[in-house]
TrEMBL record, chain A:
<dbReference type="InterPro" id="IPR002888">
    <property type="entry name" value="2Fe-2S-bd"/>
</dbReference>
<protein>
    <submittedName>
        <fullName>Xanthine dehydrogenase YagT iron-sulfur-binding subunit</fullName>
    </submittedName>
</protein>
<dbReference type="InterPro" id="IPR036884">
    <property type="entry name" value="2Fe-2S-bd_dom_sf"/>
</dbReference>
<dbReference type="GO" id="GO:0016903">
    <property type="term" value="F:oxidoreductase activity, acting on the aldehyde or oxo group of donors"/>
</dbReference>
<dbReference type="GO" id="GO:0051537">
    <property type="term" value="F:2 iron, 2 sulfur cluster binding"/>
</dbReference>
<dbReference type="InterPro" id="IPR006058">
    <property type="entry name" value="2Fe2S_fd_BS"/>
</dbReference>
<dbReference type="GO" id="GO:0046872">
    <property type="term" value="F:metal ion binding"/>
</dbReference>
<dbReference type="InterPro" id="IPR052914">
    <property type="entry name" value="Aldehyde_Oxdr_Iron-Sulfur"/>
</dbReference>
<keyword id="KW-0411">Iron-sulfur</keyword>
Automatic annotation (TrEMBL), chain B:
<feature type="compositionally biased region" description="Polar residues">
    <location>
        <begin position="550"/>
        <end position="563"/>
    </location>
</feature>
<dbReference type="InterPro" id="IPR037165">
    <property type="entry name" value="AldOxase/xan_DH_Mopterin-bd_sf"/>
</dbReference>
<dbReference type="InterPro" id="IPR046867">
    <property type="entry name" value="AldOxase/xan_DH_MoCoBD2"/>
</dbReference>
<keyword id="KW-0560">Oxidoreductase</keyword>
<dbReference type="Pfam" id="PF20256">
    <property type="entry name" value="MoCoBD_2"/>
</dbReference>
<dbReference type="Pfam" id="PF01315">
    <property type="entry name" value="Ald_Xan_dh_C"/>
</dbReference>
<dbReference type="InterPro" id="IPR036856">
    <property type="entry name" value="Ald_Oxase/Xan_DH_a/b_sf"/>
</dbReference>
<keyword id="KW-0500">Molybdenum</keyword>
<feature type="domain" description="Aldehyde oxidase/xanthine dehydrogenase a/b hammerhead">
    <location>
        <begin position="68"/>
        <end position="175"/>
    </location>
</feature>
Amino acid sequence: MMEHSETRSQGSGETTVNLTVNGEPCQLTLPPNVVLLDALRDRLGLTGTKKGCDHGQCGACTVHIDGQAVNSCLRLAVMCEGRHITTVEGLASDVGLHPVQQAFLEHDAYQCGFCTPGQMMSAAALLEDSRIADDDAAVREAMSGNLCRCGAYKNILSAIQDARRHVSPQRTEGESP
Amino acid sequence: MRTLTNIKAPEAAPSVSHESSEARKEQTGRNKGDGPLARDTTTVHRQSATGGSSTHARAHESAIKHVTGRAAYIDDIPAPSDVLHIALGLSPVAHGRLTRLDLEKVKRAPGVVDVITIVDVPGHTDIGPVFPGDPIFVDDEISYVGQTLFAVAATSYKAARLAVKEAVIEIDERPASLDPVTATERGEFVRPTHTHQSGDWQQALESSAHVLEGEQFVGGQEHFYLEGQACLVLPTEDEGVMVYTSNQHPSETQKLVAEVLDIPFHAVTMEMRRMGGGFGGKETQASPWACIAAIIARRTGRAAKLRLPRAEDTRATGKRHPFNNRYRLGFDDQGVLTGGDITVIGDCGYSPDLSDAVVDRAMFHADNAYSLGQARVTGHRAKTNTASNTAFRGFGGPQGMMIIEAAMDDIARHLGEDPLTVRKRNLYRLGRDVTHYGQRVEQITLLHDIVEQLEASSDYWSRRKAIAEFNAKSPIIKKGLALTPVKFGISFTVQHLNQAGALLLVYTDGSVSINHGGTEMGQGLHTKVCQVVARELGLDLEQVRITATRTDKVPNTSPTAASSGADLNGQAARDAASKLRERLFDFAAQHFDQELGGLDREGMRLEGGELIAGVGESERRIPWGELIQKAYLARVSLSEKGFYATPLIHYDRDAAKGRPFYYYAHGAAVAEVEVDTLSGEYRLSRADILHDVGDSLNPAIDIGQIEGAFIQGMGWLTSEELKWNEQGRLISDGPATYKIPAFGDLPPVFNVDLLQGHPNSQASIYRSKAVGEPPFMLGISVWSALRDALASLVDYRHCPRLDTPATPERVLMAAEALRNATLVKAAQPETSDDPA
Ligand code: FES
Ligand code: FES
């Protein structure tokens, strides 16, 4: 058993990494070239995070790493040692749906739903980010990395602006996503 | 097997639940819950499930699953731990002969369990969906880059992919045929040419006051369904397979899997819960992957999963057909068409696939909303060395409409009229109400109403004036405005596909399960079908649940395509529900109030979760749950199947005449663009849409479909550029090189309304209209607005040719061409002003 929250190489060429995923500490032993997206989906069974392109260009795989929206297909799992990861499965809390989820529900902000988890994760992060202005143009810009082939952008935008009423921006610093 | 089993009390020490169940048994008025009989029945929560409520906006049936990430797609289904992952070996060249395929090193690569090629296919090797021509694996002839040569199954996906690289492939390469116009000249077709003709088009041209001609290239489109092609196949205990697939046409894939494995159809079961987008790309082209995975699953006895990575998906599968169109049309001084000749050439790729019907639909829509007069329309199906082009929202219709919309703009410029004026004059009207294929256009005034309402609501004419003034003062930035209509025929043009089935099951707690042949890909079909059943049975939407589309529940189904999903499957579900309802009425009339001579069968209805009989004093209400339980105990069947076949439609291919469409759906859009004529960059600043969905089944879903379709249509005509290199390799094979509309492309002003007060004149499901495809073509307004902005460079005397997608590069080239033409004209004032 590993006891330290420290990345360590295993004999088999696999590496052990300690993460906190949706509030639960977990330890994974995996090859160093496994991306976070695959680790979440295949190792932890968290299939809410989707694989749209696998190349950092569609946003379907967006998760939060320490509160920042990140394309999980571009992050190696081993680079996330000690980090707090939130996926769509962790967006709701004991008290109910996250305001973004509630707003997506009320605004029908999806059609096929495949982009939805990524859209919501990006939306939840941007609403907490006080550096992003609250007008439509700023939201569109901040959401530009999340593609929706069904073209549900209008409802997604209104859902985000509606959710804003229930989220207060917190973060003013931190690395760019 | 017994169907009734007594529920025994647990033997163990009494638990709380045991006690409560005992207590419940003793309650008076409750049944004991023998066998399948429920102890409690579902209740209706709101008084909202009657009459018009089915037309209210209702939440998507998977809403909560979508926002919590629990809506599972194929790749999310937990697979058995010994599942095999499949990777494909694809052809690197577009045309040639496979002279050597040595897979020895592939077989020996780590983790590899099975490797298959054409010789390992037990049954049919041709999986062409309608016509032959699609080998499951290359035999020796290679027809496009991305064609499947072999498949590798390994214990991990990575191992399978690495093993693919070990193959030794030798190909005797030949020149690739990539130009459909050249192919047409050479007579290289995947299917024979077809022609529609009405009247004497040559005579019409000769006697016309004006004649114009023009040509255009209309680019293709990658589906870019966000969930790529994927399937999971499990071997079953007999010789069969269970196939989970992201698929718009499970019955066809079932057939092909059975034929490839050489087993009966009943040994193959397909299950399809939802797709992460389909758009036509999973109508025929989801089958090959299921067939390959099925062979591996049968050979190895293990589950097999095949998921195409994005770049392979875009290379291996067909797209929207690119078209090369030409017109030569005559018209009078008012710009009203007298007749002429239109030719459309669809680039079908290497095999027929659905191209016969796609090019037919392009021909059926070469008139869009306008009477062509005496016209001939010819459609060629060119064969080229690319992936086999396939269904895509609109199915050729959009490409056909583009030629007549080009002509409308050109005619307007020729006569010095506003394009909207010319369009309005050409709309089908009394006396000019028969299409070039012989179908009479019903609801003839409807498009006129739509255009007039939209003209007013979008302020077309005052904006037109403001734009003219702006452009006169602005030398570089030019604004453009256009209103374009859509008339789109609804039905499969292949007649036998216009049928559907449904299976309705009611359980003894009163909950209802509906299954039908349609598939859910984001268009809200399942929600609509649930609404239909809830309405017919007077229940809440919550009491009706839809289950995954399965070929062992409803067999021999048609693809979910041609916008027909709700029309066909909604009617089949309604048929099942109304049959069951009548049976319940018969039962209730006899069973209840026997001492009073039974209930009044006439006027009986299901409403708000109750059966209601009689009126006033003698009104009797029986809760749904009680009705169902009594019916069960009286041995009345609580399941029903439904069926529907669209009436009236027919088409005689030899005569090229008929009524291929049950009805038409209509709409119109106004787009305003701003173009930087020095860079070609532009943006859509406003869009207004008015669309006809008859009496909407679900306005929220319909408006979402219209918005999404418009954006996708705009993407097709503006930013989505497919590029192949000279060797026939697709180089725009991912989102970095192929640009689908993103958040920033959403117009800042975007008004979408449903036309009110015009129920479908045909007896469609609750007089609604299909909505999946028709609004796609509203995107043409953006292209026409770009041409309008460009025309301002030459004082609207000429409309430039603008091939699509009208990328900034093409817009810039068109602007340059206009500027150069103006310079030439200034030097030679006597040049004809005929733009042709
Ligand atoms: S899957 Fe990560 S951005 Fe597309
Ligand atoms: S809802 Fe289908 S991709 Fe966004």
